[in-house]
Design the sequence.
């Protein structure tokens, strides 16, 4: 419970009080570290688990592979995956293969991830292909993304996720004709996109926000607060990155949409309604967008607050203008591009 609420220090306190933690407790602690960005702590804990004689189970390796994936530790992840059957007699399940595709995809090894998928000894399902498609979107690989999306369209014609991802890949490449084709296909097939929303609990009441939401009773105060925050973070160096707005509209409208994403509305409301110095805790049903991630770092600095955002993938703890994730995926993309450029010279 504490882990899923973002209180990783409390998790460790409770774990350390256990005299004989079993595999489940070790797994929860390792997963908690990985979800909060302390990936190497999680891997060290896995080694301690072995040292103290607790035998890892299949879930242990899911937690470890998750930690490797979110830390960009490709070699370590491959070592743990291959060691499952060799040293622990654990046959990899679909969950483990999905973790490996995620590990390779996040690090930018898309071709390797694709061949890993087609060589899998298990029957392929949507999850593993969706994982690869998400990596194609992160690394802007249009060709492979289109191929994988078409496969997913055939596997499940009613699942909106592959349509949305393909649309986003096309939008980021300014291929608006392709975007309109995908959206028309969704309409023709009666497929509706899951709206992004964020929620925050204040005084035991949960408040939910969508992008550009004006349904909240205190909308006027929230928007005034947002405008004030925008001026302050711009003064601190923030520049809106409108590439994250995947709509074919004018630049000014893109900035307006961007600055009124659901997580920013929730954060502004939290700043209005919580005492100074307390942590703002926000949950989002989708992945936090890149520009909101940058903006929230600035907000944590100018507002002098810790802001904890739990998105669809992990926790982000913003503090003093930094995030616990360390902007890892931006760094990995840059490193992969530099390596590719160097190989061409």
Sequence:
């Amino acid at each position: 419970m504490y882990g899923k609420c973002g209180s990783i220090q409390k998790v460790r306190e409770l774990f350390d009080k256990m005299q004989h933690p079993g595999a489940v407790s070790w797994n929860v602690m390792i997963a908690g570290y990985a979800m909060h960005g302390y990936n190497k702590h999680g891997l060290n804990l896995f080694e301690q688990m072995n040292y103290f004689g607790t035998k890892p189970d299949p879930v242990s390796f899911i937690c470890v592979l998750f930690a490797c994936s979110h830390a960009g530790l490709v070699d370590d992840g491959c070592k743990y995956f291959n060691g499952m059957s060799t040293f622990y007699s654990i046959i990899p399940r679909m969950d483990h293969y999905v973790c490996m595709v995620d590990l390779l995809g996040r690090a930018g090894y898309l071709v390797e991830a694709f061949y890993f998928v087609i060589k899998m000894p298990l029957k392929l399902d949507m999850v593993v292909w969706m994982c690869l498609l998400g990596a194609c979107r992160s690394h802007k690989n249009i060709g492979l993304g289109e191929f994988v999306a078409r496969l997913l369209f055939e596997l499940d014609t009613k699942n909106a996720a592959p349509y949305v991802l393909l649309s986003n890949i096309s939008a980021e490449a300014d291929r608006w004709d392709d975007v309109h084709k995908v959206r028309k296909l969704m309409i023709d097939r009666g497929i509706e996109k899951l709206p992004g929303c964020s929620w925050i609990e204040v005084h035991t009441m949960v408040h939910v926000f969508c992008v550009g939401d004006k349904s909240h009773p205190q909308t006027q105060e929230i928007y005034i607060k947002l405008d004030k925050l925008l001026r302050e973070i711009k003064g601190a160096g923030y520049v809106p990155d409108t590439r994250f707005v995947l709509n074919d509209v004018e630049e000014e409208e893109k900035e307006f949409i961007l600055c009124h994403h659901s997580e920013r509305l929730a954060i502004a409301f939290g700043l209005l309604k919580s005492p100074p110095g307390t942590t703002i805790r926000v949950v989002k049903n989708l992945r936090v967008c890149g520009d909101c991630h940058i903006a929230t770092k600035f907000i944590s600095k100018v507002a002098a607050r810790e802001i904890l955002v739990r998105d669809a993938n992990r926790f982000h703890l913003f503090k003093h203008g930094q995030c616990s994730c360390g902007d890892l995926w931006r760094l990995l993309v840059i490193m992969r591009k530099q390596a590719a450029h160097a190989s061409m010279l």
